[in-house]
């Protein structure tokens, strides 16, 4: 086997090249322009993510590379040759992998090898080796229904890797899993990839979760929709294993969020200063999480990409006045843009509206960590010897910047947001804000919890 450079530090051989690729689904009035002028190359040794809001054409790019659908125009090359029909060098792992319920775990992996003409003994050998590698040793004879969601997805990975694809394509492979299973599976994949234990030469993963992309991959291709196009190609030059709390990691996450949120002002101008610092402290708009979420969900349902604010208020059966704090919060956090009386979601706002509960909390946390009042509260609690501070202390400090009842309302909103994002906690009985223990994070071996039954994988809209 040729020496494969993990981490993409050295340019490898070119596997895939898309040049000026366009894709339109359907024709005439019902035509959807899914991709516009996509230029993309993937080399051996690279782990690349496609990142962007739902509908920006990420899955379409995977399907074109796998040869499941043709491009409408442009050139698709695999190892320098035009791709015709199904690409034998790739496999795709989908969100919820379709396993055959009547076959055992082992048979579910072996079944992928049959069409390749591999003899039965060799099939068994390969299947057992892979199941062992993904941590399913001992579950060979179990049936899919006996496994948790995370374990089933591991069988999916094992099956995809059994055929030893040169290019492994992953379409949001972790998004149907609970947080802990997703995290342990991410770590296992990274282990397989960085150690070179699998013959896969490159990985292309679809994600709409920025931290996941920064955690795992060498390059992030950021996309936008209507029609789907690439807006940035960002290298991730951090050594593995990566740590989510380190500065360079957080900076890169922020940089990508900033890009997706399409900010125009500098952060300092937009967000103001911390209480006690020179400059104006921008008050938090008094919008509870439920109102912000409801607003973003409602706007995301809109067919047009902008909605008139009066019509929006009407459809939510609220006065525009009552809606304004949520609108301001959505703008402040980079979820929406208001222009000429219309509101539009940013790709980040769309991602939030479509995300699972946990992913929403994570997106929200990354956004409010930038807000000076929230940062100030975090810093204060952090600096306290036992990481606990009474509510009154904050309120008194804020009273220097705001009238007393406004200071109290600022604290109410900050606590509502901070609690939701799990940045800090509040004990109602003692009126104390505090930091909890470190949550379970990457790297810790985690038993796979019995997750809920995953939804059956959705048939493609082809
Ligand atoms: P993503 O994976 O980024 O969510 P997709 O590649 O699934 O995006 O879709 C890109 C666009 O193409 C969307 O507007 C979607 O509605 C449209 N689309 C996807 N598949 C089909 C199809 N089979 N027929 C018509 N439109 C489609
Ligand atoms: Mg998709």
The set of bound ligands, ions and cofactors reads: adenosine-5'-diphosphate, magnesium ion
What's the main sheet like? 6 strands, mixed
**Strand content bin:** 15-25%
Tell me, rounded to a whole number, the average pLDDT.
85
Number of helices: 16
Output the strand order for the largest sheet: 6-7-8-3-9-10
Structural class: alpha/beta
Q: How many β-strand runs? A: 16
- Topology-level CATH name of the largest domain: Rossmann fold
Termini gap: 37 Å
Q: What is the CATH superfamily of the largest domain? A: P-loop containing nucleotide triphosphate hydrolases
Gyration radius over CA: 24 Å
CATH architecture of the largest domain: 3-Layer(aba) Sandwich
Spans of at least 5 consecutive residues whose pLDDT stays below 50 are 1-10, 438-462
Shape: globular
Helix content: 25-40%
Number of domains: 2
Top-tier CATH class of the largest domain: Alpha Beta
Task: Describe this entry's structure for a reader.
The protein is an alpha/beta fold and 462 residues long. It has 2 domains: 14-259, Rossmann fold; 289-434, Arc Repressor Mutant, subunit A, CATH 1.10.10. 38% of the residues lie in helices and 18% in strands. Strands 6-7-8-3-9-10 form a 6-stranded mixed β-sheet, sandwiched between helices. Strands 2-1-4-5 form a 4-stranded antiparallel β-sheet, covered by helices on one side. The protein has a 3-stranded antiparallel β-sheet with strand order 11-13-12. Helix 6 (210-216) packs across helix 7 and helix 9 (289-301) packs across helix 11 (320-332). The longest helix is centred in the middle third of the chain and has 17 residues, at 179-195. The model is unreliable at 1-10 and 438-462 (pLDDT under 50).
């Amino acid at each position: 086997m040729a020496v494969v450079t993990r981490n993409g530090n050295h340019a490898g051989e070119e596997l895939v090249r898309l040049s000026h690729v366009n894709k339109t689904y359907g024709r005439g009035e019902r035509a959807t322009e899914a991709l516009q002028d996509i230029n993309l190359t993937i080399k051996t040794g690279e782990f690349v993510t496609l990142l962007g809001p739902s509908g920006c054409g990420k899955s379409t790019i995977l399907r074109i590379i796998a040869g499941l659908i043709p491009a409408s125009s442009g050139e698709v090359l695999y190892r320098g040759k035009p791709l015709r029909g199904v690409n034998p060098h790739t496999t795709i792992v989908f969100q919820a992998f379709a396993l055959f319920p009547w076959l055992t775990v082992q048979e579910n992996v072996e079944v992928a090898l049959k069409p390749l003409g591999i003899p039965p003994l060799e099939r068994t050998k390969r299947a057992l080796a892979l199941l062992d590698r993904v941590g399913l040793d001992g579950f060979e004879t179990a049936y899919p229904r006996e496994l948790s969601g995370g374990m089933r997805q591991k069988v999916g990975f094992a099956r995809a890797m059994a055929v030893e694809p040169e290019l492994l394509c992953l379409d949001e492979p972790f998004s149907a899993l609970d947080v802990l299973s997703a995290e342990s599976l991410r770590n296992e994949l990274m282990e397989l990839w960085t150690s070179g234990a699998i013959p896969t030469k490159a990985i292309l993963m679809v994600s709409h979760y920025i931290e996941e992309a920064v955690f795992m991959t060498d390059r992030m291709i950021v996309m936008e929709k209507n029609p789907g196009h690439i807006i940035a190609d960002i290298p991730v030059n951090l050594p593995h294993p990566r740590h989510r709390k380190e500065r360079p990691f957080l900076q890169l996450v922020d940089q990508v969020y900033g890009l997706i949120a399409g900010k125009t002002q500098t952060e300092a101008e937009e967000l103001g200063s911390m209480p006690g610092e020179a400059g104006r402290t921008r008050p938090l708009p008094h919008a509870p999480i439920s109102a912000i979420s409801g607003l973003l969900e409602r706007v995301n349902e809109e067919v047009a990409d902008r909605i008139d604010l009066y019509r929006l208020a009407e459809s939510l059966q609220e006065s525009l006045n009552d809606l304004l704090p949520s609108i301001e919060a959505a703008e402040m956090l980079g979820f929406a843009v208001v222009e000429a009386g219309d509101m539009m979601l940013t790709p980040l706002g769309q991602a939030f509206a479509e995300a699972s509960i946990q992913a929403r909390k994570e997106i929200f946390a990354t956004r409010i960590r930038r807000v000076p009042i929230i940062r100030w509260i975090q810093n204060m609690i952090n600096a306290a010897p036992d990481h606990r501070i009474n509510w009154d202390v904050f309120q008194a400090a804020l009273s220097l910047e705001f009238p007393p009842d406004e200071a109290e309302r600022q604290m109410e909103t900050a606590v509502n947001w901070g609690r939701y994002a799990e940045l800090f906690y509040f004990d109602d009985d003692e009126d104390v804000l505090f930091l909890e223990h470190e949550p379970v994070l990457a790297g810790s071996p985690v038993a796979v919890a019995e997750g809920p039954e995953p939804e059956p994988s959705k048939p493609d809209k082809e």
